[in-house]
Amino acid sequence: MNATKRRAIYETLQSLNPHPTTELEYATPFELLIAVMLSAQATDVSVNKATRKLFPAANTPKALLALGEERVADYIKTIGLYRTKAKNVIATCEILLAQYEGVVPQTREALEGLPGVGRKTANVVLNTAFGQPTIAVDTHIFRVANRTGLAPGKDVRAVETALEKFTPSEFRQDAHHWLILHGRYVCKARRPECWHCVIEPLCEFKPKTPPPEL
Ligand code: SF4
Fold first, then answer.
1. Distance 184 CA to ligand 1 centre (A)
2. CA 20 to 30 Å from 166, out of 55, 89, 102, 109?
3. pLDDT per residue over 60-108, tens digit each?
4. Distance CA 119, CA 25 (A)
């Protein structure tokens, strides 16, 4: 795909959604960190359902530690892998208090040093809580980047590198959210909905999905 098409894709997504953001509900960087940790292999909707009860009960490292692993697990038990996630949340809170005065650090290295925090989670927190132009590649973005030809790559790291290389700087901050939302609601995994896709004329995927028969 050439640079003109790439720019046009971002301009189109931007014109329809000038200020995209995460669908995870959060009020502080710490809440976002916990929500993103809980969202691994789970939907944002299921995470929001759990955190709407968890955060009013405890939304700081100190408060979550006071709550304890068992009760945290109870709040999040509707989310997949909840026992491991509860353990990681508690271990993360311990490190935040011991090493960072209870404050979420703003560097990739420090974030990736927290239990249950991988590159993708660190990228989301750096981008969404701290305004850094990182692009976290999840399953949706991986699919959209490859199908469209926007930034092909054989694994998520290769796609992240390609997106960083090919995304014009003015679109870097929001690229993650535009692409994730596009993958979640239009360029779906099993059947991309090409017939109502706003970037269809620019996308290089073939064959495009025809509209469903009435
Ligand atoms: S045209 Fe189809 S394959 Fe291309 S981005 Fe849109 S939904 Fe995805």
1. 12
2. 109
3. 999 999 999 999 999 999 998 999 999 999 999 999 999 999 999 999 9
4. 21
